[in-house]
Amino acid sequence: MRLFTSLNKNYRINLKSCRTFSSTSKGRPTGIFMMNLGGPSSQEEVEPFLTRLLSDSEIIKLPIQKWSGPLIAKRRSVMVKKQYGLIGGGSPIRKWTEKQGEAMCRLLDNLNPDTAPHKYYIGFRYADPMTEESLKKMKEDGVHRAVAFTQYPQYSCSTTGSSLNELYRQLCSNNLLNTFEWGVIDRWYSHPLLIKAIVGQIRKCIEQEFSDEEKKHLVLLFSAHSLPLSAVDRGDTYPHEVAATVHQVMKELNFEYHYRLVWQSKVGPAKWLLPATGLAMEGFAQNGWKCQMLVPISFTSDHIETLYEYDILYAELAQKKGIKMKRAESLNDHPIFIEALADIVSNHLKISSRSSKQLGLRCPHCSNLYCADMKKFFATG
Q1: What is each CA distance from 72 to 25, 37, 53, 66, 268, in whole angstroms?
Q2: What is the domain range of residue 316?
Q3: Nearest-angstrom CA–CA distance, 329 and 294
Q4: Which of 3-7, 210-214, 234-238, 367-371 has the least mean pLDDT?
Q5: Are the CB atoms for 228 and 171 separated by under 8 Å?
Q6: 257 and 357 share one domain
């Protein structure tokens, strides 16, 4: 890691001119780099996807990870392939990201004619198209001004942080640090249109699925991907940013319903954030709360966590426990959500800040030197 830190010294650049983010030259696209974890598009891609995921210590730490990661991936791939088989054979996250990118850029061309045309690029962490591939495409297209736009509303070192670290590594290793003028959208968990879109999906589900009497006894379970407690102890901002999104949604709903924040998708034996979604469902049912609705609060697009965990795993649990369980639809290409994406980027393009203030602050117990260099580059230049 020390070697990587020193590598950055070979790519010193003067970014003072980037502070004002001058408009792109006429005809040169503004690149919107949409970052996400990604997902295997077919069952054949499951094992390579898991191998990349489980070999990455920024996501999950394993003993002798270089060897244990691929071994665990090979073993888990049998089960995970079956899960993807139940949801159509692969993850639809690339399809949804492409739809979101196309619709967002159409709006941006009208909202921000000075920086048009806008073109989206997908930078998945563990599935195609991956970061290096998309950066090369951006260079071929003549992009100068680029916005690294996380598709996770709430920041976590293991999601947005990992994607930005990988972006920075690829810029260094491919000698691209001088190629693009970067801005970063690193979190957007309380954006008004995001909240409006989530609230709309909740109200739609309630009106369609629950009677007036059932509404009195309804519990909204805001389910987010869990996080190891070791990451929380280091100072990761994810838990309180997810909670902030929940609070804004409930405020918009006038706190009409009972609700809780719950956590799903734990991996491995380490301790993660609790209560777990499935166990929370059971606990509320035992206490007499048998009208429940799951709300995806950290996922904006359908993928394995919604299509398998919500619609199959938790639906089966609800049936066994006598729970009336429904779930709010994911945002996917909902018009208000697309407006949110465009508005977030549009506002970013009009200001002089490179990123949020928070991006420049490392976790109090961070020991990842990639984070130090990445944050210096993207947050302060």
Answers
A1: 49, 19, 11, 11, 10
A2: 192-327
A3: 9
A4: 3-7
A5: no
A6: no
Contacts 24+ apart (CB under 8 A), 264-270: 264/223, 264/224, 264/225, 264/226, 264/305, 264/309, 265/225, 265/226, 265/305, 265/309, 266/226, 267/60, 268/60, 268/62, 270/228, 270/229, 270/230
> Does the pLDDT at position 44 exceed 80?
yes
At 69 the pLDDT is 81
pLDDT-based confidence at 59, cuts 50/70/90? confident
Question: Quick one: 257 and 127 in the same domain?
Answer: no
Q: Coil, strand, or helix at residue 186?
A: coil
**Phi and psi torsions of 148, nearest 5°:** -80, 110
User: Cα separation of 130 and 143, whole Å?
Assistant: 18
Both 239 and 176 in one domain: the answer is no
CB atoms within 10 A of CB 320: 10
**166 and 96 in a common domain:** yes
Q: How many residues does the chain have?
A: 381
Other C-beta atoms lying within 10 Å of the C-beta of residue 315: 16
The beta-strand segments (E) located in 226-372 are 258-264, 291-296, 324-327
Catalytic residue set: 191, 343
Residue 87 has pLDDT above 60, yes or no: yes
Residues 198 and 224 in one domain: yes
Distance of CA 64 to the CA centre of its chain: 27
Question: What CATH number did the domain enclosing 22 receive?
Answer: 3.40.50.1400
Residue 176 lies in a domain: yes
The SS3 of residue 182 is strand
From the list 194, 192, 190, the residue with the least C-alpha distance to 240 is 190
